[in-house]
Amino acid sequence: MSKPLFIISSPYDTYSGYGARSRDLIKAIIELDKYNVKLIPQRWGDCAWGFCKDNPEWSFLYNYNLNAPQLPKQPEIWMQITVPNEFSPVGKYNIGVTAGIESTICAADWIEGANRMNLTLVSSNHSKQVFQNSKFERRNKQTNQVEAIIELKKPVEVLFEGANTDVYKILENIPQNDITKTLDGIKEDFSYLFVGHWINGDIGEDRKNVGLLIKAFFETFKNKSKKPSLVLKTSSAVSSYVDREIILNKIQQIRDTVDSKNLPNVYLLHGEFTDEEMNQIYNHPKLKAMVSLTKGEGFGRPLLEFSLVKKPIIVTNWSGHMDFLNSEFVKAINGELKNVHPSAANQFLLQESQWFSPYYNEVGNALKDMFEDYKNYIDGAKRQTYRSKSEFNWEKMKDKIDSLFVQYIPEFPKEVQIKLPSLKKTSISDLKKIELPNLKKVESNG
Fold this sequence. Notes:
Elements: E1 5-10, H1 17-32, E2 36-41, H2 51-54, E3 77-81, E4 93-97, H3 108-116, E5 119-122, H4 125-133, E6 136-139, E7 146-150, E8 156-158, H5 178-184, E9 191-195, H6 210-221, E10 229-233, H7 241-256, E11 266-269, H8 275-283, E12 287-292, H9 301-306, E13 313-316, E14 331-333, E15 335-339, E16 354-358, H10 360-372, H11 378-391, H12 394-408, H13 428-432
Parallel strand pairs: 1-2, 1-3, 3-4, 4-5, 5-8, 9-10, 9-12, 10-11, 12-13, 13-14
Antiparallel strand pairs: 6-7, 15-16
C-alpha cells in the first residue's frame, strides 16, 4: 500500500537556525515511516550553503531530494519551513512551520500566510500567543473604510525544537583540536559565553542585544584587579574575513565609549562550527556560563543546547526560551517591554510592536554576582540540565510531531490495486459446442 506523498520545502542545507530546525523535523518525519518524504532545498538569506555536505551524518537527506523541476503530482501533504508570508498551499493538506516572531505583534502578511495553510506549527507559546493576538484592519485606499479584519482563522500549535542529547551533553574528555587549543589560550580562567548573530540595531537595540551585553560587561568589570572575560561566538550572518573585521570594529567602538583603560578582555569566535564542535565549546572548562540579553526569541536553540552541560545561564526573563528555561534554575533578568527601535525595525519586526529591554542595573549585578559566587548557581544549573534533557529532547519532539499529525492530518484515499478474477481461456472450437436454447418463433400479424 502506497504512503501519502509528503513534500517539504525548507532551507535544510544551510548554516542557519532554520536549517537546524528543518533537519531535525525532516529526520523525525522520515523516521515516523508513515509518509513518502521528498525534499525541496531552499536558500536562507545570505547564510552559507552545503551544511549536509560538510556534515556527513546529514548527507542522507540528499537521497530524498526531489530532483525533477516539477512535482510528480499534487502531494497529499505539503510543508514549508520558512517565514509565514512565504507560505503557499500546494498540497491537499498544507502545513507551515516557523519559529515565529520575537516581538509582540507579527505582520499582517504573516497572519494571511498562516490562514492560507491548514495548520501552522510554531516553536514556542510566546509565538503562538502573538499569532493569536495580532489583528489588523484592512482599509479601502480611497474611502479609508474598514473592509476586513485580518486575524488568525486557522489552527496554530506549538512544536518545540528538541535538542539532540546524543551530541549536546557533558564530555568527560574534550578532544584536542584547533578550537579547544584556541580556548586553552584564553588568559582568564572564568569566561562568559554568548552565542548568536549580531544583526541590525544601535547599542541596546539589536535583537540579540550583543552591543548592550558588551557595554555592560566592560562597565561592570572595568578597573577591577580580578576580571572574567567574555567570549562572543557571533557574526553578522556569514563567515568571512570582511564580516570578522566588521564585528571586531563594532567591539572596539563600544570599548572606546567606556571611560577606562583597564577593561576586561572580549574574545571573538568567528566561523561555522559543527554540532560536535559547539558542544566542545560549551564543555570547555574556561567557559563557565552562558549569557544572553536577547530582546526576544521565537525559541532560542543555543540556550537549550548549552543548558545540557550543567553550567549556569544568565538570560532575559521573556519570550520563547522561557518555555524550557525555568526561572528558578537560571538567573533571569527582569525588564520592561519597549517599542522596536527604528534601527532594528524591518518588514517583520514592526516599530509599533514591542520587545524586552532588561534593567541595566540587574545585568551588571548578575554578571558580578555569578563571577564572585559561582558555586551558588551550580545546583540550579544541574536541575535545568535535568529538565532540558528529560522534557525537551529530540525524541520527545518526534513524539509531539506524530501526535499533532494524528490529530490534524486527515485520511487520504489510498491507491488500491484491483485484482480481477482469473477467466478460463475459451477456444473457437469450444464456442461451437455451445448450444443455444430453442427460441419460439413469433409471427407478426401486422
